[in-house]
């Protein structure tokens, strides 16, 4: 269970200029070493920059080519979500459908996209994942080359930066990781 009060309290103290929390007793930050220690995911490897301009049309093409879904189904999913994103529910359906069809490459992509979309690359909706991340799994044999730890930290830092803007109503990112890190940082100060 996410402790919204604690998350909000620390998010209010985030300073994007220094990428740190300004607290009464000093500054603290979340480091890549913290992420590596908690998640045990690769922190070395190639950095990835997903395509920034993935629109509905490109998302539909990616659905058909990488997930093996019918064109009409891909159109329905992207239009239902009002953009280039997929719902976790739909990815789960694609996963089981492709397993049944013995299209294991497509099933693996759907599963991996669901996994990163609800953990390290989660957005504010907590129900959708951006289509731009599907391209990370285009070549399944090279998934291990990506530096997943820095990706998780960058997404969390981006949402922390956004949380400091006056118009922001909620925070995104891997909040479970954020909360555990806050507990560990807090405990290390007093015990």
From TrEMBL:
Domain of life (superkingdom): Eukaryota
Stored InterPro entries: AminoTfrase-like_pln_mobile, MAIN-like
Keywords annotated in UniProt: Membrane, Transmembrane, Transmembrane helix
Pfam families: PMD
All residue ranges annotated as the Aminotransferase-like plant mobile domain in the record: 3-182
Leader sequence segment: none
GO biological process, one term: meristem maintenance
Transmembrane segments: 171-190
Protein name in UniProt: Protein MAIN-LIKE 1-like
Gene name tied to this protein: LOC105851960
């Amino acid at each position: 269970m996410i402790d919204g009060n604690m998350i909000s309290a620390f998010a209010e103290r985030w300073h994007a200029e220094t990428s740190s929390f300004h607290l009464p007793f000093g500054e603290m930050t979340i480091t890549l070493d913290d992420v590596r220690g908690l998640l045990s995911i690769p922190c070395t490897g190639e950095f990835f920059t997903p395509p920034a301009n993935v629109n509905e049309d490109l998302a539909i093409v990616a659905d058909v080519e990488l997930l093996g879904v019918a064109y009409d189904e891909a159109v329905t999913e992207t239009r239902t979500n009002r953009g280039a994103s997929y719902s976790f529910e739909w990815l789960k359906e694609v996963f089981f459908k492709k397993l049944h069809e013995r299209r294991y490459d497509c099933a693996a992509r759907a599963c991996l996209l669901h996994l990163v979309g609800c953990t390290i690359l989660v957005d504010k909706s907590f129900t959708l994942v951006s289509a731009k991340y599907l391209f990370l799994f285009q070549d399944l044999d090279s998934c291990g080359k990506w530096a997943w730890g820095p990706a998780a930290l960058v997404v969390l830092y981006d949402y922390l930066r956004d949380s400091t803007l006056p118009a922001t109503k909620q925070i995104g990112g891997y909040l479970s990781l954020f909360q555990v890190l806050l507990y560990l940082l807090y405990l290390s100060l007093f015990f």
